[in-house]
Amino acid sequence: METTPAWARCNSCKGDIDFDQTYYVCSISTCNRKGNELRFCSVECWDVHMPVMRHREAWAEERRSPSQAQWERDNPPAPAQPAPAPAATLYDGELPREILIVVSKLKAYVRARSGMNTSDSVMEVLSDRLRALCDEGIRHAASDGRKTLMDRDFR
Question: How many domains does the chain have?
Fold first, then answer.
């Protein structure tokens, strides 16, 4: 027995909002921006949203979800994705050898933390270690098929 997938989920109770069904949205425009569309299966679920968002004047607007045929017509399946790119190849040519550390902030941190002074030669060593850490993060992001280095690539 195959079940029909729901059109969307309620942002409060996480229940299904089926095709061709009444649902509710918040009247505040920031709750309905593209990519952040808040949908609720009932006015009660919309009420749960109110104290969290702290709207001064808002109401639930009634809407109707599209039929499944209309949804499929307006949202054709995406073409097959190409195979992920191989692991990133790091550029081995001449790279800038600049200091990557904000010297004044590092020196202030060391002094506040320990009362010690910091030699200027520390900046070059830390910059080299930071480059190696970034190289490892770049490889991790590439192995995940991403072109954006994120915080999770350094764990």
Answer: 2
Is residue 89, in this structure, part of any structural domain at all?
Answer: no
The whole-model pTM stands at: 0.46
Q: Tens digit of pLDDT for each residue in 75-86?
A: 888 787 766 656
**What is the distance between the alpha carbons of residues 132 and 112, in angstroms, rounded to a whole number?**
27
The label of the residue with tokens 């200091």 reads: 99
Which residue carries 């079940």 as its tokens? 3
| Domain presence at residue 2 | no
One-letter amino acid of 62 = E
Is 84 inside a domain boundary? no
Place of tokens 């195959």: 2
Gap between the Cα atoms of 16 and 18, Å rounded:
6
Query: CA-CA distance, 3 to 153, in Å (whole number)?
Result: 38
Among candidates 131, 126, 130, 133, which has minimal Cα distance to 107? 126
Say if residues 111 and 128 touch (Cβ distance below 8 Å): no
